[in-house]
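#lab-general

N.A. 3:47 PM
ok so I finally got the sequence cleaned up, no stray characters, all 439 residues accounted for. can someone with queue access submit it? mine expired

B.Y. 3:52 PM
send it over

N.A. 3:53 PM
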Amino acid sequence: MNYNEALNYIMSIPAFSPKSIVNGTEPFDLESITELLNRLGDPQDDLKYVHIAGTNGKGSTASYINQILIESGLTVGLYTSPYIERFTERIRVNNEEISEDELAALTEKVAKTVDKMKADGCRLPSEYEVVSAIAFLYYKEKNCDIVVLEVGLGGRLDATNVIKTPELAVITSISFDHTEILGDTLGKIAFEKAGIIKDGSEVLIYPLEKEADESIERVCSERNAELHRALIPDKLLSADLDGQKFSLKIEGIDEIFETSLLGNYQINNAAVAIQAAYILKNRGWNICEAAIKTGIKNTKWAGRFELLRKEPYFIIDGSHNIEGASVLVKSLQQYFPDKKITFIAGVLEDKDYPQMMAKVIPLSKKFYTITPPSPRALDSKALAEYLTKSGAPSAESFDSIETAVNTALSSAEPDDVICAFGSLYYIGIVRSQLQIINT
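B.Y. 4:20 PM
back already:
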């Protein structure tokens, strides 16, 4: 099996679709992934983890923690989803992506095991479960000291939740997303996220709404888990398009940190990662203060309020729910006060895009709409029509992402701001195209 054959195999496996849910029936469970990993020798049991769940910010928080641990001299696995430009981004060790040959070899091994499961009449794993199994095998092969493991969806029934008690469970911000799966209240959603909390574990949570906080506190109490509530930065000292500097009170002392990641929410994600590092340090991990500061400063994370060029300014942001759209607007207002923004927008049909668009329309100069490469995508023409009816200054639909990007650039003045947002499924294409244009 070569790399392309491996990708074709992975993509051919049925993926979980929210449209298939019947009320009262759990959309997935851990039966198949447990069986698959057992037949592969349970590689996940030989690793240590920081397990991260949440609605928004979990990828950025994972990246911060990953970099801090790398700066501490550890061999660190990082598992995230979805990818931005290359499938191999999802599985990394010390920031190096799994090679195409390694992915192909491990996919073939997993595929043979899946075939045996089929022959034995077992329920077969989903695409995400297969990829997770590949990742666990890879991290074990690479002798990772610790793996920063991002939950794909929810937590309680996510494929990553086959692990035993992690070194630390982190829950980032919680808001409304995937409500047809996770529940229609913050308490229900928080309960699903809290599924990653194991008996006797340590838990760090982002500042949450009361209902979500209380739900997680109950789970911690039931499982005798120690709950830590993260503090957000005491003060933003400076912020421009080159980065941000902030202070955070650590063990009673105001410490100053720098990050190159933009967006006012990123300093909050950094603060969670800093406090996660101190919890790990107190558990005996060899993490020094210098490694924490350097880790925060050196963290890179594509597709989250990422500035790709100037003249005109071009930003991509993977925000794809109401909270994400809200923080995107705040960040745009922070860096470009009194500016109207040209938006390239593409969304999935099952998202609450009306409320997302309601957040950004008041800030808009015009919209160029596209259709993300996903079977769940909302057609670009339908989105343009919706925006026009909802009060957008103008909205033009495009058949291709590349044409929308080229049109936005050719129509812009040097000091204009263009922002592509709405779905992580397409901003990687935008990012790749901008890299070509910029060179």
